[in-house]
Amino acid sequence: MAKPAAKIAPFPHSEPVSQNSRDIVKGHFSNELVFGVVGFAGSGSSTIAVQMKALLESEQLRGGSFVVCVIKTRSLLRTWAENNRIEFDNNIDEESIDSVVALQNLGNRLREHHEDAAAAARLLIEEIRKERAAATNTNYPTPHPVMPDGTRRAYILDSIKHPAEVELLRKVYGNSFALIGVVCDEEIKQKRLHSKFTGSGIKQIDAFMKDDFKSIHPFGQRVGKTFYLADFYVDNSVERTAEHPDKNWEVSEVLSRLIKIVTHTEIVRPDAHETAMYFADCARLSSACLSRQVGAALVDANGSLVATGTNETPRAGGGVYGESFLPEKDDYRCAFHPKPGRKHCHNNEQQQQIIDEVLKKFIDSFPGLQDKREEIKDILQSSRIGGLVEFSRAIHAEMDALLSAARQGVSPKGARLFVTTFPCHYCARHIVTAGVDEVQFIEPYPKSKALELHDDAITTRRLEWTPPSAGGNQVLFTPFTGVAPQLYRRAFMKDRDLKDDATGTKRIGEPDWGSPWETTKLSYPELELAIMPIQEP
Predict the structure, then answer these.
(1) Which residues contact 43 (CB under 8 A, 6 or more apart)?
(2) Taking Cα atoms as reference points, which of 380, 367, 396 lies closest to residue 284?
(3) 252 compared with 249, residue with greater pLDDT
(4) Longest pairwise C-alpha distance within the chain
(5) For residue range 492-530, what is the model confidence (pLDDT) as tens digits?
(6) Computed from CA positions of residues 507, 512, 516, 522, in that sequence, does the dihedral angle turn out positive or negative?
(7) pTM for this model (two decimals)
(8) H/E element holding 233?
(9) What ranges make up the beta strands (E) of 318-454?
(10) Which residues are 153's β-sheet partners?
(11) Please, what is the Cα angle at 131 between 127 and 132, to 5 degrees?
């Protein structure tokens, strides 16, 4: 016979708690937001920072407007150089590209000096502390934390240049941090830079753009990788000035949507293209490729999902490994290959064999180069030979999606393809041949020669484009804009009441445990202490 449940005796001398745990946690929210901005040279990241500031200050937002501070990385770099007596010419002609190259080099020196790829973010964090101290009348500098005072504040960081900076800012500010990626057409970026730096040649500007994407300096900036980490993307390809406004300029409207998502001023739900890219990102996560994870989603003209794909090793019978219930012993992907000596990237293996073969022919023909063997090998490795992708065992995500649709008997003609990374030239020709109308992507892929090899069949200019299914003669390859996959759940989850239960009238309530964008002012050990009043005598 089961024993009766033991009764819990009341605490004979306990005092009632003045607040419940939810109110204690909410009472320690910082009420601050931090927005980083990342964009390639010429994309106009400062324009986005200024516009974001204006919207946060002026819009009728839920909970009120923000006190906003824009912090420029380049200003902090100059101050750092001056304080540390590092040689830097502040008088370089602003119309010369030498001025921004000098700032690039200064950022490299900062990271190298501290041996910290996130060093610039540390300057930004320190400046946030200074701004908060000034706003709260706190003596500065101080070895103690500068605590938020509950005022609604937003800090906009212009601009972020390295993935390590994003990682640090996310670790420090948690859900209160969001990264905005600035999308811009390649030709527009080049045009802006040529217009701004009139005294600079095309080769000099092209070299600057290449270094901006990925510096050869070991502590150089990595805007290409940083851009991929954004939470939200906005297109700034359209020119707009006070004298020449463009009706197609949608930056303000797009950024307003982000602010509505953050503040819950209105009910916002995903567009079809945001959902499609979310599907692509979900597919990406299943890849076990040792080089990179890429996902793709094929949707029809109505936005309905047709097929997904990932870069993965093909499996006999159709499809790829990892998408069926095979036992572990039958998984032949490179990461899990059951045969000894096969757990490695076969593409890298073939690259090295080619490099060794070319090197041997050089040394055999020119024996005097023997002493330069390792140097020549490094040069070959850094050349396009080291970028060959044709020997990978994995099928690419785009091809996996197209072939998956074919196995289901669904035509890709007139469909849209969403890919987490820009398609390589191998996939591009199949995408065109399959009859796909449009490709949207997030991460750039400089190795791809798709635009160069297929400029007759591919365009990047949306405003001048007619879909092939509607009589056009080019497939559109365009950057993704809107809510990025990693923000999708937090942006669109129904985490609060949206109606009055008695009347059914729409009413946006507050989440029981606060906004998903909030971060507490306390560390978790301090928060543990704050909720300790309930104790047994």
Answers:
(1) 182, 183, 184, 189, 236
(2) 396
(3) 252
(4) 94
(5) 999 989 998 889 999 888 888 999 999 999 999 999 999
(6) positive
(7) 0.89
(8) strand 232-235
(9) 416-421, 438-443
(10) 32, 67
(11) 115
